[in-house]
Amino acid sequence: MNQMKKLIKNLGLFSAALALTALNGCKPKDIGNAVSADAAAKAYVAPGKYDSYYNFVSGGFSGQMSVYGLPSGRLLRVIPVFSVDPEKGWGYSEETKPMLNTSHGMVPWDDLHHTELSQTNGEVDGRWVFGNANNTPRVARIDLTTFRTAEIIELPNSAGNHSSPFITENTEYVVAGTRFSVPMDNANGDVPINTYKQNFKGTISFISVGKEGDMDIAFQIQCPGVNFDLSHAGKGKSHGWFFFSCYNTEQANTLLEVNASQKDKDFIMAVNWKKAEEYLKAGKGKKVPVKYAHNKWDEKSHTATSTIKNEVIVLDAKELKDICYMIPCPKSPHGCDVDPTGEYIVGSGKLAALIPVFSFDKLQKAIAAKDFDGEYDGIPVVKYESALYGEVKKPGLGPLHTEFDGKGNAYTSFFVSSEVVKWNIKDLKVLDRVATYYSVGHLCIPGGDSKKPFGQYLIAYNKITKDRYLPTGPELSQSAQLFDISGDKMQLILDFPTIGEPHYAQAVPAEVIKDKSVKIFKIDENKHPYAAKGEGDAKVIREGNKVHVIMTSIRSHFAPDNIEGIRLGDEVYFHVTNLEQDWDVPHGFAVKGASNAELLIMPGETTTLKWVPDRVGMFPMYCTDFCSALHQEMQGYVRVSPAGSNVPLTFSLGTNQPAASK
Ligand code: RUQ
Ligand code: CUA
Fold this sequence. Notes:
ten-stranded mixed beta sheet, single chain
């Protein structure tokens, strides 16, 4: 580990020096400041002006997704996905809790690695963005009219859902590969860990996406026990195929750092999913008992439901020989990227010093001619040379990910040598290189993994920030760096901090999304069972020890704002409907001592806070969002009496409670 760090450090310096000579030999020594004078103008978006791109960035270990404007780097929104979020009440309100349900129960914090925008005809269409949960394997769909998570589906037979959620060119499928191979869910998992080779399987999941976006696990393919790392769909001529990088083809179960780095080549697994569909139709899939949660948000009732499902269809890649093929790829491949034409498949070996580029045409010929080098655990291995288009020689150290500009160029990130390298796809010649600060992971070009990239900007997402920002204690914000790539040479124009750890990101021209944005929820379409569509609907009802407070908020009061007759031992549900029908006027709700949360309620929406008072007394409640000049007046009281008290249940607004109710 220490050695690795030293190596990275040394290589970082080496590459900075290298980039300096290659790019601007006569610029000042401190390459960190080697930003030319026009950079500020290029990233400048004047106050009151919109950015030209939306950038959807994964939050890594934060479990969320963040939205930035480009080129300014302004943070526009953090979308809660797999982790609870107090800013939005995600996972705290009764309505959102089911979204975080899994077969293991509620999981309040997960790890979101990749974002993927929906596509139509291979072009980014701005309907949804998908994200993956690594730890407890799930895929989420975020609706880009509301910028909210609309659906989350759990993946059985998986662990560490990393090569996910990549999509096919018409969003037919979102695809997810397991990072950890594990015994299948319906097999006995209580086996010695060192029986990896016999008992552990690698599963990839094909999640179908309906017209309205609804996800369903169409089928899974059971593959050899390896680590699937990343994937990308074929497109154009290679539509119908999917490519997964895999490492640990050594099938090690301990000290992978060493034991999974033995072989000179691991694999990219090519999956013919059209063929898999045929087998599925022909009934070749096995129905396997499993348990997974499928959670959906309903925009009319403003409520999520979680359903536990019990079955999945599995195709066996060993039996159905012509679904999967292994292509040797040096050395512990990570990124697996397909160029806009669909012909070139780029593998990035984390420990390799070259970039292999495979040809889809050659792969097809090799498969047809059975030009194989034997089998790997029952899967045919295509000869390296037979699938290889060529190698980018000496590009840098530790290639990770590649994006495309749509002008025939590829851009690859190099973690170890901390740089981005631009190369030509046809002749595989390196054209330019630029240092990143530091240890770049993923890259993003708007539309950069689609058929139609917008090759104006490139963003590098860096793992280490070190000296780039003011110190903030032991942890520094991770960082994105924006490059102008419209010319021959890449030009650094902006650093901006990111939430969590940015892994993959996608970006899309603002026009594709901005006019579809929802401004309010129509109050007369509100189907929440406890909605109050006007103050006249406000009431408080007791059902045994459950008390439902059906209340409204509007600038600048709650109805009701005085409640008496709550008793110790009651469970109180505040169902707050925000009556506003105006953009950007949420109201908040908080009650003293609520051990759960607060609420933030959008115009036209109903949201519920469960409160179990723990003592007798007077409990103020108030609006937590500065909504109007009289926001501080937006408050009320709840009186809690002892258990068994005969204080009648009353509620009011604008009138003092009659003395008799004391
Ligand atoms: S990964 S930094 Cu989790 Cu996408 Cu390559
Ligand atoms: Cu409503 Cu402040």
